[in-house]
Amino acid sequence: MTLANDLIVPKEFVLGSDFLLLETSSPKVARCPKQVTLRIDPGGHILYWIPKVGETRSYVFIQDIVDVRTGKRAAQNYVPLKELSSNIQLLMTVVSNVDFVHPNFTTFVPLDNSAEKVLLEEITDKTLTFQRDPRLNEALYPKITERGMNAILRSLGYSQGDVSFEAFVHYLWSAFCVDSPNIPEDRVADSMHEPLSHYFINSSHNTYCTGLQVKGAQLLSSSAHKETVADVEMYRQVLLSGCRCIELDCWDSSDGPVITHGPAALFGMNEIPLKDVCEAISECAFKTSPYPVLLSIENHLSQKQQKLMVQIFRDTFGENLLCDPLESHRLEEGQLLPSPHLLRNKIIIKAKKAKPKAELALLDRDVVERQLCPVEEELSSQDLSGIVNYLTATKMPSKWNVDRNYFLMCSLSESESMKVYNQRQANNFIKHTSRRLVRVFPAYHRVTSDNYIPKIHWMMGAQMVALNFQTNCSAMLLNHAMFEQTSNYGYVKKPDSMCDPTQEFDIYEKRFPRRLPVTLKVTVLSAMFLPDNNKLKNSPFFVTLDLLDFPPYDAEAKEYARGTGHSGIHILMPEMAFLQICLWRRFGCNATPVAYRTLPINNLQNGYRHVILRTIGNRCLGPLSLFIYFDVFFYVPTVKLAFHSALMNPFSRDREEERLSQALRHPFLKQDEVDEDEREEDKIQALVGTEKLPKDASPHVSPLPSPVADSVVSKFTK
């Protein structure tokens, strides 16, 4: 093929267009699509393509091209990819050769960025209908406009006006459509002005431990760890993750106070110097969060070494150590605890205070918390008592919600906490924790450092539910989800009804004041970027959904989704509810978890969301994700639906009343005007989150329309 000297290559060919390149070394091997930019050089001699990832250019001389095939003829020389079967007419195969028996086939599929557009009006309408949270009052939270949507798309790098399908997909993947956004930093700061007892506090158990609690526990089949080791670095890592309550088990040694799970001779754990630990705490205490760090001291030191410990605290922490109570919050009866805001950048010691000498003979010392063979704590020295204030440890009271010294706090094991629940004392316990701090720690039998589900203890109001941070498990995923709500600052505000002891909160009868239950409907639409293995083609994936709302947590709350499906769940207390998502892969009669995600219901965004899945260690597995439609709305009885709609959408209600008024004044309205009004009414009803229901029906969502136009779907999806 020869080209005339005066041939002018069109500008479009020189600038190029985006294509998918399908390559193969054999007609029997399916091609792997790769996005490239296809161009012709200005002289018209070379057809070349540049991959989007990497800089290696490939080319073919135009004089070597013997044929260009399109449509079905272009597909004859390769095994069609499933996702391209609907776009077979778009294929283009360039045929070149060096001789008759060695032809080369290079196939392209155009990525049309202009042919299909999603109108800005349509994308705004979809956002209003499906992405907007129906629980938001339209007067307080105005609906998005086309101008606002244009601003969002411009921030994503797209021009004003019509939007391409690519731009719409980019919008769905962007930060504007995250599944469960964190509370903004300014709102977090505004919420940190209440007493310390009004917050859940991210807490660690035996923070120094990197593995087992006891040497030899690795022989147990349930053990996920192999060693019994104490490490200073654990304090850094835990604090950097946002944990605000850490534990120090202090023991005597010839070189000064050390930290270990003692006695060391019994439990087989190494010792680390207290001074090194304090330096690590001082270094990392406030890098992630400015709010107070609480040091839970398990004191096994002699009086002499307690003085050394206190001196180490004073020397290492300096002004950050809270030695004396604040002037505004003295240690007096009836005085509430100070707020996290007032205690910013402070390190607070939790320990027992020394008893007056007259009481020492009658002292009923507590049994230490976590020992397999219980070991009593030593008596606190006056030096240690001098730096203990708002976290004064005491034994568990015989009656809850009695003592008015709110600076006194107790610790109890998970077993003791569950005993309170089983003895139907949880309601009094909730009132007790509205003013006083309580710490819950793992039962003594958890020698393999396994964890317990913290949810029920949070539901009972316990602020510090300590977990073994070294063990990756569903309990830790739940803990991460709780405190990610406030960007890992370590403090999350409790529901208002759990902060007021005058409220009749009943955990057993599921009766709670000032709460409005919600209904959650989940539609799993697709999974993206699933791990592939040719040897495991007959091992299907499936998804499980678990709701953690009110105890007990049983199988009734579990829904399974194979492929796609719907599951509707009524949630009594959304502030304390979590949705646990797990992606599984089946191998014969067994199944193995592949990825996880735990989402707080209270922050869950309505609409179409890409849920990025995570490892058991809470690390993102992106782009592995589930494309899910969430429909979250207030549960409203049918007879009160119109009243609820008027409250949540007052402007829409005014327009509806105006329409009815016009109908009375002008009874002969055109039918198309009536139809338009009915469509507007349907849109308002969709914003409420549910459709009109028969009197005996529960909330239900009709089959979901596509988030994009049918014409777009038919082109870009199978």
Describe the fold and architecture.
This protein has 718 residues and is α+β, with helices and mostly antiparallel strands. The protein folds into four domains: 11-110, PH-domain like (Roll); 125-177, no CATH class; 195-357 and 375-498, Alpha-Beta Barrel (TIM Barrel); 518-634, Immunoglobulin-like, CATH 2.60.40. Helices cover 24% and strands 25% of the residues. It contains 19 helices and 28 strands. The strands form five sheets. Strands 13-12-11-14-15-16-17-18-19-10-20 form an eleven-stranded mixed β-sheet. A seven-stranded antiparallel β-sheet has the order 4-3-2-1-7-6-5. Strand 3 and strand 4 form a beta hairpin. Helix 16 packs across helix 17 (650-665). The longest helix is centred in the last third of the chain and has 18 residues, at 671-688. The radius of gyration is 32 Å and the shape is globular. The model is unreliable at 25-31, 358-373, 554-567 and 683-718 (pLDDT under 50). Its EC number is 3.1.4.11. GO terms for molecular function: phosphatidylinositol-4,5-bisphosphate phospholipase C activity. This is Phosphoinositide phospholipase C. Keywords: Hydrolase, Lipid degradation, Lipid metabolism. Residues 688-718 are annotated as: Disordered.
